[in-house]
Amino acid sequence: MNPKKLFYSLSGGMVLIILGIGYGVYWANGQLRTSSTEISTKRTDLEILDAKVDNAQVLNNQLEDLRETQELVREVLPGSKSQENIVGELIAIASNRGVSLDEIAFSNGPSAPGAPEGSTAVKGINGVFSLTVNTSIETDYENILGFLEDLENNKRRFEVIDISITPPAEDTNTNLFGAQLTIVTYLKP
């Protein structure tokens, strides 16, 4: 083999090696891109799953809070749902103080289907309704305070949302105060 042929065959071999290396790099680059895309997709899927797990934990915590709220509602709200029972409880509380209720009126608004008559749904607590009662009493100031305390400590939760106390008239020899009360009680049918 003469030097010229050797030169051409070595040059041809070098070209083939360079082409082989170029093709190898091109093939390896394609494989890396495919792997990179798969890794990126799996990383995105993992982030989505992590977000779903975090959301599930938050929802689970909210569910626990709602369970506690529902248990509290069952404990606090008595089984009696009728307006007659509420009137009876108010009269009993007043009579324990030696007070008589002058009038008892319910604020009758539109009721939701399945809700007790005149009640409205309490926002944020499913299945709990509020019923507004207007009443008035006439007694001395200490009995008014005692009546309010008895309402506060009663098993059925009564919430006084408005009170107006009128002092005795100066031209009378009485120490009787008048009190107009707006009371809200809660029901779970």
If you had to describe this structure to a student in words, what would you say it looks like?
There is one protein chain. This protein is of the alpha+beta class. Helix content is 53%, strand content 21%. It is built from three helices and five strands; from the N terminus they run ααβββαββ.
Name the descriptors.
21% strand; 5 strands; alpha+beta; 3 helices; 189 residues
Radius of gyration: 40 Å
Number of E-type strands = 5
- Low-confidence stretches are none
- Gross geometry: rod-shaped
Strand/helix succession: HHEEEHEE
> Counting H and I runs of at least 4 residues, what is the number of helices?
3
Structural category: alpha+beta
Distance between the termini: 108 Å
In percent, how much strand structure appears in the residues? 15-25%
Q: The biggest beta sheet, please?
A: 5 strands, antiparallel
Percent helix range:
40-55%
Overall mean pLDDT score?
84
Offer a concise description of the structure:
This protein has 189 residues and is α+β, with helices and mostly antiparallel strands.
What are the SSEs and their pairings?
Elements (H helix, E strand, L loop, with lengths): L2 H74 L6 H14 L4 E6 L13 E2 L7 E11 L1 H13 L4 E9 L10 E11 L2
Antiparallel strand pairs: 1-3, 2-3, 3-5, 4-5
